[in-house]
Amino acid sequence: MQSLRTVMDPELHISIVDLGLIYDVNIVGQKIKILMTLTTPGCPLAPVIDSMVKEAVSRIKGVSLGDISVELEWDPPWTREMMSEEGRAQLGMI
C-alpha cells in the first residue's frame, strides 16, 4: 500500500489510495494481484494508471513487472465516500 500511495491520479493529483481506488492487494509468493477501480468506467487514462501502478509496485525489492497484475473491478462502483479523509481534504470536500 505504501508503494501504491506514490501513484497520483493524473487529473486530480491525489494518491489513488486516498481516492479509495484500491479494493484489495493479494500477495501469493512473488505474485501480486491488485484489485482496483477507477472513478469512471470510461476513464481514458486507465492504461496510464495501470502502468503507473505496476511501475510503483515493481520498485519493491525482489518484485518484477511480470509478478504484478492489475484487475479493474466496477462493483461496487466508486463513490466520493470511498475517499480517505486526507483525500477529501485535498479536494476541499471537508
Q: Overall pLDDT, averaged?
A: 94
Give a count of the beta strands, DSSP E runs of length 2 or more: 3
Spatial sequence of strands, sheet with the most strands? 1-2-3
Q: How many structurally independent domains?
A: 1
Content-based structural category: alpha+beta
Strand content: 15-25%
Q: What is the CA–CA distance across the termini?
A: 24 Å
For the largest beta-sheet, the strand count, sense and barrel status come to: 3 strands, mixed
* Spatial shape: globular
Taking pLDDT < 50 over at least 5 consecutive residues as the criterion, the unreliable ranges are none
- Indicate the CATH class: Alpha Beta
Tell me the helix content. 10-25%
The fold-level CATH name is GMP Synthetase, Chain A, domain 3
Q: How many individual helices?
A: 2
CATH architecture: 2-Layer Sandwich
CATH superfamily: Fe-S cluster assembly (FSCA)
- Roughly how many Å is the radius of gyration? 13 Å
What is the string of helix and strand elements? Answer: EEHEH
